[in-house]
């Protein structure tokens, strides 16, 4: 059986297909948890509102998926449109909702269900990799999505997950698997667009960040990169103060390349001032699909 993994975002709809994922029904899988790097998974991306492209992609598959697991932050209407397309193949979608505690991740959010499913799933996936793989669940479950808690693994390191998309999110998880909280700010493209649409004379800028920009395009591009990188440094330093050691840094998202050099430079400067080595930044492809693959490997079958 193949399982379709769905990352329904504001700009892109990303699809992952897990081949030979399990039995004919439900989500029960044999063997270890799967990750996005698995040769049994293929990924595809289309515009988030291009439902016809989704139909075309599904029609081209040799065998349609029999089950789907997804994270949707693009609104109920988008979720319903995806469900309607998959219903023509007899494929039901299970949408993930953030939990207070599941898979070893405990959320400090005041209302845990308010946390974006994409952020929560991504943290679950990174946490599983940091701990060396997702533990299979014990008895009981943690809520309506069928997710089950996993045992804690000692000695895991804290990490900062920075995702640069339509919005930029910076989420910090302790070595004990506690989501301490995170930032949300406009992504690089939204920052540029807001200046172009909200002012009379500023252009929609593209340029290389400079220490001392000498034209408007450079000034805007440098300001955007500095804002994004500065937010990363802020959370990295906050994590170092909270945990007594600097967190690992993971980066993802289509806008990462735009801010990578500035982020690496400012992190190195901050590390030097604080007497630390500059952190190595690990870039993750498709963190939401990666996390969904881990979840799919441990979800219980649907009740008959």
The low-confidence runs, each spanning 5 or more residues with pLDDT under 50, are 23-39, 133-154
Q: Strand content of the residues, in percent?
A: 15-25%
Secondary structural class: alpha/beta
**Element pattern in H and E:** EEEHEHEEEHEEEHHEHEH
- In the sheet with the most strands, the strands line up as 6-7-10-9-8-11-12
**Largest sheet properties:** 7 strands, mixed
Pfam families: Pan_kinase
Active site: 118 (proton acceptor)
Pathway: Cofactor biosynthesis; coenzyme A biosynthesis; CoA from (R)-pantothenate: step 1/5
Binding site for substrate: 109, 116-119, 216
Structure notes:
The protein has 304 residues and is α/β, with parallel strands linked by helices. Helix content is 34%, strand content 21%. The strands form 2 sheets. It has a 7-stranded mixed beta sheet, with helices on both faces. A 5-stranded mixed beta sheet has the order 3-2-1-4-5, with helices on both faces. The longest helix is centred in the last third of the chain and has 28 residues, at 216-243.
Compact description:
The protein is α/β, with parallel strands linked by helices. The chain has 7 helices and 12 strands.
List the helices and strands and how they pair.
Layout: E1 3-8, E2 12-18, E3 41-47, H1 51-60, E4 67-72, H2 76-87, E5 93-95, E6 101-102, E7 105-107, H3 117-130, E8 159-164, E9 167-173, E10 178-186, H4 188-198, H5 216-243, E11 248-252, H6 256-273, E12 281-283, H7 287-296
Parallel strand pairs: 1-4, 4-5, 7-10, 8-11, 11-12
Antiparallel strand pairs: 1-2, 2-3, 6-7, 8-9, 9-10
Helix pairs in contact: 3-7, 5-6
């Amino acid at each position: 059986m193949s399982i379709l993994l769905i990352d329904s975002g504001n700009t892109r709809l990303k699809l992952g297909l897990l081949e030979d994922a399990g039995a004919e029904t439900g989500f029960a899988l044999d063997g270890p948890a799967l990750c996005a790097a698995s040769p049994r998974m293929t990924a595809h991306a289309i515009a988030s509102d291009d439902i016809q492209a989704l139909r075309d992609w599904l029609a081209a598959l040799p065998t349609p998926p029999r089950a789907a697991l997804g994270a949707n932050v693009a609104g109920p209407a988008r979720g319903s449109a995806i469900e309607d397309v998959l219903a023509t193949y007899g494929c039901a979608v299970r949408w993930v909702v953030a939990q207070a505690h599941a898979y070893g991740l405990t959320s400090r959010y005041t209302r845990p269900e308010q946390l974006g499913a994409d952020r929560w799933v991504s943290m679950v996936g990174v946490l599983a990799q940091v701990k060396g793989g997702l533990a299979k669940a014990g008895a009981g479950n943690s809520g309506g999505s069928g997710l089950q808690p996993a045992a804690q693994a000692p000695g895991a390191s804290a990490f900062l997950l920075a995702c640069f998309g339509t919005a930029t999110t910076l989420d910090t998880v302790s070595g004990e698997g506690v989501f301490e909280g995170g930032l949300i700010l406009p992504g690089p493209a939204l920052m540029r667009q807001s200046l172009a649409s909200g002012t009379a004379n500023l252009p929609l800028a593209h340029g290389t960040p400079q220490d001392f920009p000498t034209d408007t395009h450079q000034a805007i591009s440098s300001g955007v990169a500095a804002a994004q990188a500065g937010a990363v440094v802020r959370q990295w330093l906050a994590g170092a103060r909270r945990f007594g050691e600097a967190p690992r840094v993971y980066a993802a998202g289509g806008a990462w390349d735009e801010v990578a050099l500035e982020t690496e430079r400012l992190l190195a400067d901050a590390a030097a001032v604080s007497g630390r080595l500059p952190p190595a930044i690990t870039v993750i492809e498709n963190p939401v699909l990666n996390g969904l693959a881990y979840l799919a490997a441990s979800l219980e079958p649907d009740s008959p």
